[in-house]
Amino acid sequence: MTDVSVLPSLIGKDATHEQVVFCNDPHSGLRAVIAIHSTALGPALGGTRFHPYATEEEAVADALALARGMTYKNALAGLDHGGGKAVIIGDPSRDKTEALLRAYGRFVQSLGGRYITACDVGTYVEDMDVVARECDHVTGRSPAHGGAGDSSILTAYGVHQGMRAAARHAWGAPSLAGRRVGVAGVGKVGHHLVDHLVEEGARVVVCDVNDAAVRRVVERHPEVEVVPDAPTLVRADLDVYAPCALGGALDDPTVEALTARIVCGAANNQLAHPGVEQALADRGVLYAPDYVVNSGGVIQVADEIEGFVFERARARAARIHDTALRIFELADAEGVPPAVAADRMAERRMAEIGRLRGIHLRGR
Ligand SMILES: NC(=O)c1ccc[n+]([C@@H]2O[C@H](COP(=O)([O-])OP(=O)(O)OC[C@H]3O[C@@H](n4cnc5c(N)ncnc54)[C@H](O)[C@@H]3O)[C@@H](O)[C@H]2O)c1
Q1: I need a labelling partner for 351 at 20 to 30 A (CA). Which of 70, 83, 101, 301 fits?
Q2: Where residue 2 falls among pLDDT bands split at 50, 70, 90?
Q3: Predicted pLDDT at 96
């Protein structure tokens, strides 16, 4: 598929990845990129995104950025996993077939366990069951196949833990009771987060572009307020803003308009560009790094590799509270925004634990 001569320039932009694999099976129509950013902490773990990228360059760039993000997320989740991610180029509603998924599974298998795949945007637990017919290195499977099912439950739980840590750091007590919390996007994760917040006694305001998603929340919790859109929510009188829809939620106009003291939500890649983390800090907003607080999902799929035990996975997701707190303290101590402190803490763990491989043990 891709002219390999362009590879160095594509990867050169972000040259720390260990391995990038192009997968091509013309008969099934499979065109995929598997990016392994790091195996310093163990086999790379990260989902497979199925998306109609306009160009192969765009697909490679996304795979590289997503894989790098997983390295940091997995490191701070305390997992023995490095970071990787795969993208399949195509429209999942049109192009996803059994043959394509199984062809993809054979490519993942060819990596011998250096990369373990799971679901992401455009792929579902049933798809992982199909991939697993050709491959041993698949998690995020359906309960019928020993999988843990919907990861949004522990993702929302982890975000709530991170939010409690932020409240503790900002206000001295790990509680959202009486606080006004705005949740932008009440899909799979957002609506579970609303459940936790309402149960804790927070005053919740939501918005979503999908009316059915809003209705589901209001039917469960009639006391929840609804505003028309995210810009309105950002300007509302909030204590906490929780972006739970798409990436890039924190851009310059949003930071400028924010009333909340804390930002803590599930969405991946919330910072629209480098520098936003500093702009938030300059405005006195405490930002809980997205990849730290939304790691409940990957904690769940990692647990599944051992044979899923919900309570064990939840206990691990509960530690997001302490990790977030340590990040806020490190940020204060080092005079940097929490996003920078989180990266430093992840890099420290990778260096300390990755170094142990220097002590030779047969077969490990
Ligand atoms: N599901 C997980 O376990 C998990 C884990 C880690 C991170 N995340 C991230 O959390 C976010 C939410 O994931 P999800 O699984 O709940 O997805 P989802 O698609 O179920 O929910 C997203 C919701 O946001 C709404 N939305 C989209 N654009 C919006 C806008 N401009 N304003 C307001 N609402 C809007 C959608 O209508 C939808 O209801 C994503 O960024 C995802 O990458 C999810």
Answers
A1: 301
A2: very low
A3: 98
